Amino acid sequence: MTSLGGDGDQSADGYADVSANTLRTELMATPLVTRGGIYGYIIGRYVLTLDADLIAERGPPVEQIVAHAVNSYFYDRAADTFWLDGPLGVDEIADGLKGAINESAGGPLVTAFAIRQLDYLQSPEIRQPVISFDR
Q: Is the CB of residue 37 less than 8 Å from the CB of residue 131?
């Protein structure tokens, strides 16, 4: 899911990590759940700059914190995303994800957050009908 880079290490996707406090996620997919059904998926890749001192001091499970926070953020704000003509744009989403990760970590784990890729795939685009929980 993610790669935490060392000094000058080359990650598997061809992007060089500049320091040990950089985390580059692989594709992360979150189902867009709204109005009782899964209408699509939010797919993203992110680059996080982490507080190396906090990691050394506490040793938090960074990958799990990031995955939990990203999924929770999109679950909670499904109707506000820009794919549904809501008020959030890419900059607001990046700021919101950074805040959600720091809140989940219980401190300022992420010092900078960038979005490398952000896509929305509707259920029909991935060859699945809308999955409804309403009966």
A: yes
Model confidence at 5: pLDDT above 50 = yes
| Closest to 15 measured CA to CA, from 113, 116, 119 | 116
C-alpha distance from residue 5 to each of 2, 9, 77, 98 (Å): 10, 6, 30, 19
The CATH classification number of 2-124 equals: 3.30.479
pLDDT, tens only, 26-62: 999 998 877 777 878 889 999 999 999 998 898 899 9
Model pTM? 0.75
* Residues sharing a CB contact under 8 Å with residue 98, sequence separation 6 or more, in sequence order: 48, 110, 112, 113
Neighbour count for residue 76 (Cβ, 10 Å) = 11
The answer to whether 100 and 113 are in contact (CB under 8 A) is no
Annotated domain spans of the chain: 2-124
Taking only the tens place, the pLDDT of each residue in 86-115 is: 667 788 899 999 999 999 999 999 999 999
Half-sphere exposure of 42 (CA within 13 A, CB side): 25
